[in-house]
């Protein structure tokens, strides 16, 4: 069994995830990633932090809120395995398909020529 080590500073996680350091702190604040603090009060993250952020960015593009993403990630172990990420992918795919179907329905309703304020949302 692997032991999770928290050795990566904010700057490394930001670079690996393709985000600004402020985004790393944002995702930590909202429970997407977890850090420990050093004796000098600096954040240190584990290996999965950058991956979690990249997945969260995809989920946000699908339309999920940070709170919804945190709920999906809540079931992930500290050191996720491929099958753990597979379950996250299944959740994101199901949510994306549901939201796509709803959007298509709204488009159909808008094209129907009726009053926009009467579309059920």
From TrEMBL:
**Which sequence ranges are marked TM in the entry?**
none
Q: Does the keyword DNA-binding apply?
A: yes
Alphabetic keyword roster: DNA-binding
Pfam families on file: MerR_1 (PF13411)
Q: Which PROSITE patterns match?
A: HTH_MERR_1, HTH_MERR_2
Q: HTH merR-type domain spans which residues?
A: 7-75
Query: What protein name does the entry list?
Result: MerR family redox-sensitive transcriptional activator SoxR
Which GO terms of the molecular function aspect are on file? DNA binding; DNA-binding transcription factor activity
Q: Which organism is it from?
A: Paractinoplanes abujensis
Keyword DNA-binding (UniProt): yes
UniProt cross-references to SMART domains, sorted A to Z: HTH_MERR
Q: Which residues form a coiled coil?
A: none
């Amino acid at each position: 069994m692997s032991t999770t080590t928290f050795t990566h500073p904010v700057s490394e996680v930001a670079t690996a995830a393709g985000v600004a350091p402020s985004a790393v702190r944002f995702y930590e604040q909202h429970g997407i990633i977890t850090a420990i603090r050093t004796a000098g009060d600096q954040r240190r993250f584990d290996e999965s932090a950058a991956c979690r952020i990249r997945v969260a960015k995809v989920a946000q593009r699908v339309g999920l809120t940070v709170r919804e993403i945190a709920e999906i990630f809540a079931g992930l172990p500290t050191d996720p395995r491929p099958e753990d990420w597979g379950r996250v992918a299944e959740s994101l795919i199901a949510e994306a398909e549901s939201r796509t179907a709803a959007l298509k329905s709204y488009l159909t309703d808008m094209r129907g020529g009726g009053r926009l304020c009467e579309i059920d949302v």
